[in-house]
Amino acid sequence: MEKGIFITFEGPDGAGKTSVLQDLLPQLEQFGREIVTTREPGGVAIAESIRKVILDPQNIAMDDKTELLLYIAARRQHLKERILPALEKGQLLLVDRFIDSSVAYQGFGRGLNAADIDWLNDFATDGLKPDLTLYFDINVEEGLARIARNKDRDVDRLDMETVDMHERVRQGYLSILEKEVQRMVKIDASQPLEAVVADALAVIKKRFFEE
Question: Which catalytic reaction applies to this protein (predicted)?
Fold first, then answer.
């Protein structure tokens, strides 16, 4: 059986990574691998229940460490129920957010200790990292403007954060990018969606499907 391929999609709010992931699906079928898509927090019933608690706009009293631990708990359940089975079956697994989100949002954004987050991520995942992480980069003002224009999108607790918080998150991602040069590839998400999808497809094809 072929080894599973684990690709994660990361980026600040409004980068459009979820739209890119969905538009990539029909184009990835050409490679003949069974494709599985999922998201964090969520992807399985228990983790989706945790997601509702994390993102509920009414939970404004949530402590930063509580938030981090909820994400980690959801990640562990998601790993056991969805990620590991997909990889064991040799599937092409596309995950909307994973370990880097905790570093960017709870580490850089909330100011929690980076070593603690790294330890918790490692604990939750048993050290598993993606084969490839596509980081969709966009400046904060443009990303938040996209969210404001999307009238169909529900406003969650993280959307209510300050611009400064979102700036720190983006800087967090850029910091990870410098350290994870083999795993993480930066894509300009300010381009039209079709161009972003084409760039993402080219990276995946070159990394996994070219001789």
Answer: dTMP + ATP = dTDP + ADP
Residues 122 and 104 sit within 8 Å (Cβ to Cβ): no
Q: What percentage of the chain's residues is helix, strand, coil (to nearest 5)?
A: 55, 15, 30
Cβ neighbors of 153 (< 8 A, separation 6 or more) are 147
11 has binding-site annotation: yes
List CB contacts of 80: < 8 A, sequence separation 6 or more: none
pLDDT tens digits for the chain (211 residues)?
689 999 999 999 889 999 999 999 999 999 999 999 999 999 999 999 999 999 998 999 999 999 999 999 999 999 999 999 999 999 999 999 999 999 999 999 999 999 999 999 999 999 999 999 999 999 998 888 888 887 676 667 776 778 899 999 999 999 999 999 999 999 999 999 999 999 999 999 999 998 6
| Phi-psi category of residue 16: left, alpha or beta, with phi > 0 → left and psi -120 to 50 → alpha | left
18 is in an annotated binding site: yes
CA atoms of 196 and 187, how far apart (whole Å): 7
Is 15 annotated to bind a ligand? Reply is yes
- Annotation-wise, does 13 bind a ligand? yes
CA-closest candidate to residue 103, choices 71, 77, 56, 79: 71
